[in-house]
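[Automated response] Your request has been received and processed.

Submitted sequence:
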Amino acid sequence: MSDMSEAPKLDRAPKMTNPVNLLAGISVRVSVEVGSTSMTLAELAALEPGSVVALDRKVGEPLDICANGSLVARGEIVSVDGRYGIRIIELVSAEGCD
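Generated structure:
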């Protein structure tokens, strides 16, 4: 073919794939934050089996669900076939997870 006039003609335009489908197979790291606290290195070094670390969340308060470091939802702990699970109770706009 020397120019485009010799190129085969298409009967119709190529079908565009939904952009969401292109991303559907990408893995992301999902984590759930139960709570956090600040402590000195001395306090951290003094921890031993049986030590209790108080967190900044109250019992029953929703947990943060993060995907690749961004807050995507809040949820509550549930039991699923003897394993921990998270029930989504709220979807949120993108914020950072600390």
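Summary generated for your ticket: The beta strands are 30-33, 63-67, 70-80, 83-96. The longest helix spans residues 19-23.
If you did not submit this request, please reply to this message.
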